[in-house]
Each structure stands twice: as C-alpha cells, then as structure tokens.
Design a protein that fits this description.
Strand order of the largest sheet: 3-1-2-4-5-6-7-8-9
Strand content: 15-25%
Number of strands: 9
Distance between the termini: 31 Å
Radius of gyration: 17 Å
Largest sheet: 9 strands, mixed
Structural class: alpha/beta
Shape: globular
C-alpha cells in the first residue's frame, strides 16, 4: 500500500466557487505548494515539514488550518470518507498545489467507488489525473516563484477560473488563452479577488461581454469552509 498523498484536510461542505458552485463536496486538501500567491488563504499548506506529520483521523471532519499533514494511500482516503459517513458525490482535490502529486491512482479509485472528481490547480505542474476528472485550472501568473502556467494544463482543463483584481489581469488571461486550441470547449470563470467591489464590477462587465461565467466565492459570503 503506497502512501503517496500528504493530506492536510478532509472535510465535507458546499463548493463555493466556479462551475460546481453550490454542489455538496468532499474536499481533500493536499500539503505542499511552491507557487507563492500573495493573496493565498491556505498558506499553511505550503511547506511539508516532516515534524508536522500526524495521523489522518486527527485532521479530518474539521477545519484544520495548520501545517499538519498525514501520508496516506488512495484507499485510506476512501476508507476515511466512508468512516465519516459523508454523503456528497463530488470529491474536490485541492491544496496547496495538488498536481505536485500524480493523482491518477487516487482519481481512478474514487471513480471506481462512484464519486465524481474535481481538481483545483494553478496549472504550473503537469495534470496527471483520470480521464473522467473535471480539471479546474486557476492560472497563477507572475507569482513569487515565477512558475510558468503550462499550455498542457490549459489544454486539459475543463474550466479556467481566473482571479481578477484589475484590467491587467484580464489582459494577462487573454495572452495566456491565445494559444489554447480547445478554448471553445471550456468554461471560463472570472473570480474577483477578495470580493472587492471594483474587481467584481469589472468581472461582471467582462463576463456579460464575452458570455463567460462569474465566480463570486460563495463560501466566503456564507462564512463556511
């Protein structure tokens, strides 16, 4: 049994953003990220500190927000979901940066057990997932680590969900999308940064002009995880 996945949190809630907004979901948050987003609200997932390793059951069914993590196998994740009695059909694999991991075993096994899967990634790593997974790329451009958003990740994406603060972010997204050949098949979501009024108004305007979708991070308005 290979303990390939370093889990920081596992909990059930409502998906608050993007295509699946409002859908009950089980979140599996993986530890580790080297992208360095200034506005990140899960900075506790960035470092993988061996001294912070613990047992899975000490991290699950609650809001963790600590640097603790547990190294587990795909089967152990499914066993924990069953033990907790969760009823959601959608499993959202997030982070951190989940695509630092090869997610093919985990997503394939989840599908075998009747779950749907969604991956939330920055697009800076190859997306190694089951072919049935819904991939949400939230491209992180010119972050602290200066990591490139991969064209292969954008091509694999079912959804491209872009954080927006100013017109510059729209221009950067346009440049990023220009070489994507499969763009017409994708859902494009604009997400105002930090619920700012000007950013929200800009996103609404562009979404109406281009027939894109607005993502308003409902979970933050509802004050839920």
């Amino acid at each position: 049994m290979h303990k390939n996945y370093k889990v920081n949190e596992l909990f059930q809630t409502i998906q608050g953003e993007g295509f699946y907004t409002g859908v009950p979901a089980i979140f599996v948050r993986l530890q580790g990220c080297d992208v360095g987003c200034a506005w990140c609200d899960t900075k506790h997932t960035w470092e993988i500190d061996p001294a912070k390793q613990t047992e899975l059951n000490l991290l699950t069914d609650r809001s963790n927000e600590s640097e603790r993590w547990s190294g587990v196998s795909a089967q152990q994740i499914i066993d924990e979901i069953k033990r907790l009695g969760y009823t959601a059909n959608l499993v959202v694999i997030t982070g951190g940066e989940p695509c630092m991991y090869d997610l093919r075993e985990l997503t394939h096994l989840l599908h075998e057990f009747g779950f749907h899967t969604q991956i939330e990634t920055s697009g800076t790593y190859p997306v190694l997932v089951d072919s049935y997974s819904w991939v949400t790329v939230s491209p992180k451009i010119n972050m602290r680590a200066k990591k490139e958003v991969l064209l292969s990740a954008l091509e694999r994406a079912n959804e491209i969900k872009h954080p927006v603060g100013t017109e510059k972010d729209i221009d950067q997204l346009d440049a990023l999308l220009r070489p994507v050949k499969s763009l017409k098949t994708k859902t494009i979501c604009l997400q105002p940064i930090s619920q700012k009024a000007k950013a929200t108004a800009l996103c609404m305007q562009v979404c109406i002009e281009r027939n894109w979708r607005l993502s308003v991070q409902v979970h933050k308005y509802l004050d839920i995880d």
